[in-house]
Amino acid sequence: MKIIVTGATGFVGQNVIKYLKPSLIEIEPLSLRTKDWQNQINQHADAIIHLAGKAHDTSNTSGFEEYFKVNSDLTAKLYENFLKSDIKDFFFFSSVKAVADKIDNVLTENIVGNPETPYGKSKLAAEQYLLTQYLPEGKRLFIIRPCMIHGPGNKGNLNLLYKLVERGIPWPLASFENQRSFLSVDNLCYLLKLMIENKELSSGVYNFADDQALSTNELVVLIAKTSGKRPKLWNVSKGLITAITKVGDKIKFPLNSDRLKKLTENYIVSNDKIKKALDVPKLPLTAEEGLIKTIKSFNNNQE
User: Which of 203, 209, 210, 207 is nearest to 91 (CA)?
Assistant: First the structure.
């Protein structure tokens, strides 16, 4: 089996390739940054896994057009090439942020997208384009919406939270109670491989998330215990924290409004649809097991 992978050098791409190779799957990396990338597509490959994209910029320095050029326009061009080829399956990695930046209950696949950020809007635009194109018989389209992905080697908000706890700095947002879904890159790879192998799986939109949701306070405690530290939780008033984030929106500061949302708001994602479709009762790693694996990798990098 031959599979084309865009974004092969990224965090998820590297993990996907490492996970699939032992199954005798031949990976063909495709860089969309080269001018003649369309001529490099193997027209007879079995699938395209489209991971390349512009990630959400929490510093808000990226322009609106830049997101659409990468996340929407390039995806459309790649999909057009897929439709003209003999390739059977197209996997587009979108995001739960293509649906909503905040949710009140649980995010499922049937919720109508209404993103607020350029990142989410560009991902939704790509989804809408793909879903409006005629899909020939014998071909399948999978739109995958992962929530916050983590794993060894990943850099992001989880790493920032780890550094705070590891340095013994108290967690000042303990007054915010929330529940959030995470996604271990191991669980992501597990689900993706099953989808590739399952030729009876129907085209569609599928959420990817771990089975359990955790609060940020629980995450802070987990990081502390895994790192051999004593957890320090401070219940600073929400009003004061909100005032600080407004300052962070105007100047370079570790805490701004966008990052506060990521760390404290509820964002529970249902993975019931994909598990039911693949007949998977539970994922290999629990949310805690996956997070502990990631946290330990941070510990090792400090040595």
Answer: 203
Per residue in 107-125, pLDDT tens? 999 999 999 999 999 999 9
Q: Residues near 22 by Cβ (< 8 Å), separated by ≥ 6?
A: none
Q: Residue 19: how many CA atoms within 13 Å on its side-chain side?
A: 19
Report field, pTM of the whole predicted structure over 0.90: yes
> Using N-to-C axis directions, what is the helix angle for 185-197 and 287-302, rounded to 10°?
120
Give the residue among 181, 212, 228 at the shortest CA–CA distance from 285: 212
Ordered by start, the domain boundaries in the chain are 2-146
Residue owning tokens 């802070």:
220
- For the record, the structure tokens of 8 come out as 């092969």
Residue in 81, 83, 91 with CA at minimum distance from that of residue 40: 81
Tokens of 37: 């990338």
Fold of 2-146: Rossmann fold (3.40.50)
Please check whether residue 215 is in contact with residue 177, taking contact to mean a CB–CB distance below 8 angstroms: yes
Rounded CA-CA distance 152/110 in Å is 32
Q: How many CB atoms lie within 10 A of CB 61?
A: 7
Residue 106 phi, psi dihedral angles, 5° rounding? -125, 135
Dihedral class, residue 157 (left if φ above 0, else alpha if ψ from -120 to 50, else beta): alpha
